[in-house]
Amino acid sequence: MYKYQKVVGIDVSKLNLSISVYDGKKYSFYEVSNNTNLFKKDFFDKERLDLSTTLFIMENTGVYHLKLATYLVKELGCIVSVVNPLAIKNFIGIDLNRLKTDKADSKKIAEFGYIYGDKYLFSPTDELSEKIELTLNMIDDFYNQINTLSNQLESLMQRYYKFPEIIKSYKSMIKTYQRKIREAEKELERLIKKNFKVEYELLRSIPGAGLKFCSLVIGKLKCFKNFDKAKQVSSYIGICPSPYESGSSIKGRGKISKRGNTYMRKILFMCSLSACKHNRSCRTLYYRLIASGKPKKLALIAVANKLIRQAFGILKSGKPYDPDYHAGLTHSAKNA
């Protein structure tokens, strides 16, 4: 017997929601606008549901699903699952006769949810964690703007004719973004120190762990509360080495799984550079891999994994970083 009497599969796009309600035998279908203000009127007034025995399920579509999923949980008290699109794709398999329509997609999402949905239950981010996450995103956007403006300025400086007023405007914009970054980082540190003082101090005890790394662990990874092993965190981020094999004997160079969060990998990559300078354990690992002929990028990925294991061990144990203790702890986590 399935846990839910009905499953509501939702195919989410920017403007519309294609909805299939499935009870294990038959479907009912709705097409409504992706507008939380109208969702209750357009859907719930037409489809009467017992929310205690109904599962709402949708694919992770980046930003488009988040508002709806959060609204359903926080405002209406619904049970919601959010699934990696790859899981749905694997569930569907290869069906040459399958029509690719929003209606068909929502039916398949509902069917998936009827069997596996409760494995992917969605828990909305709290307001504070979301503010930390968005502040991190904003800082990264500002750095990208500085990089773009700096390249344009460099191009201007190579021209035969120089226009001081244009050059001055570019320099002024760069300074503006640099000032905004300082302000945002100051606010980020204030938020974290005020609300996550213990966690922040524990993480800062790791050599090479700066504000960005602490913000990533606290704001995006929620201090590992939803993870039992460090390896699960690495897999979630997408920095687990993925071995390559063809047939029974041909092996290629392994690569990382890129099914995780690109932005988190980017932050970790930068943090790994710092850890190679300041963290003895990470530095030893990096140069050992380089000496054995591994590419620099692969060595930095290994350092990122070690950083995650160090942070995981510290927050789970509640003890500050100790080089000797965490060397043993991370070795155990690696073999877990």
From TrEMBL:
Domain of life: Bacteria
Name of protein: IS110 family transposase
InterPro entries (UniProt xref): Transp_IS110-like_N, Transpos_IS110, Transposase_20
Annotated NCBIfam families: transpos_IS110 (NF033542)
Pfam family, one: Transposase_20
Gene Ontology BP terms: DNA transposition
Residues annotated as domain Transposase IS110-like N-terminal: 8-161
Keyword Coiled coil (UniProt): yes
Keyword entries, A-Z: Coiled coil
Residue stretches in coiled coil: 139-201
Alphabetized GO MF terms: DNA binding; transposase activity
This protein's record includes keyword Coiled coil: yes
